[in-house]
Each structure stands twice: as C-alpha cells, then as structure tokens.
Amino acid sequence: HNKIQKNIKDIIINEKYFLDDAKIALIAYGSVARAAERTVKLAREKGIKVGLLKLITIWPFPDDIINKLAQKVSLIIVPEMNLGQIVLEVERASKGKCRVVPYNRVDGELINPIEILGKIQEEKKQ
To answer: Which PANTHER family has this protein been placed in (predicted)?
Structure first.
C-alpha cells in the first residue's frame, strides 16, 4: 500500500480536455470517453464551457485531481454504461464542492454525444 502511495503520480493516468475555463466537467472512461470528447466540441460550439477528464486508469482513483476539479466547476456529469460505478467515487472525491450527476445507460447501446449534450443542457437549467 505504501509503495502505491509513493508512486501514485506515476500510476494515475488521465487526459484533460478544455478544463482550464470549464464551468461543467465530464468525467468518463472507456468507450464513453470518446463520445464525451465529441460532446465537449459540440457544447463549446454552442457556447457552453464544458471540459473532460478522461480516466485512463481508474485505480488508484484520482481523488486529488477530482477534488481540485470540483473546486473549479459547478457541475460534474459522469456518463457511464452501467448503473453508476465511477459516479460514486467521483461524489466521494469531490467532497460536496460541486454538484455531481450521473448519466447512465444500461441497455447495451453506446452513449452518444448528443445524449450527453442533452443531459448537460437539462442540468444547466437546474
């Protein structure tokens, strides 16, 4: 355990897209991350400042990165093709600093960028 903690910065791998000025962040991994990348482009074309934290490794979980992100944005949306595994970790890591909302799909169909954009627009109204 101590060995992991000492090397955590070398173990955790992620990619950041347009997070510098983002008001809303998507956190995605796996096949959903590709749709989330496209969603960021679509949202920005509409003037919505959205960014993406793409998780490459999900353990150890990037608690510090997500906590810092939660301090910068007002909303994090976590699209997942399951009942919400990562969203629980995101909620824990963000420590209530921003709203965390799941977007789940469990019918075997891929989540597409338009669906994620719809969720962003829906949540912006709240």
So the answer is: SUBUNIT OF PYRUVATE:FLAVODOXIN OXIDOREDUCTASE (PTHR43088:SF1), SUBUNIT OF PYRUVATE:FLAVODOXIN OXIDOREDUCTASE-RELATED (PTHR43088)
Domains of the chain: 2-124 (3.40.50.920)
Backbone phi and psi for residue 58, each to the nearest 5 degrees, phi listed first: -115, 0
Count of CB atoms situated within 10 Å of the CB of 8: 13
d(CA 12, CA 5): 11
Backbone angles phi, psi at 103, to 5 degrees: -135, 105
pLDDT > 70: percent of the chain? 99
Question: Hey, what's the torsion of the CAs at 100, 106, 107, 109, to 10 degrees?
Answer: 60
Residue ranges for the chain with pLDDT beneath 50: none
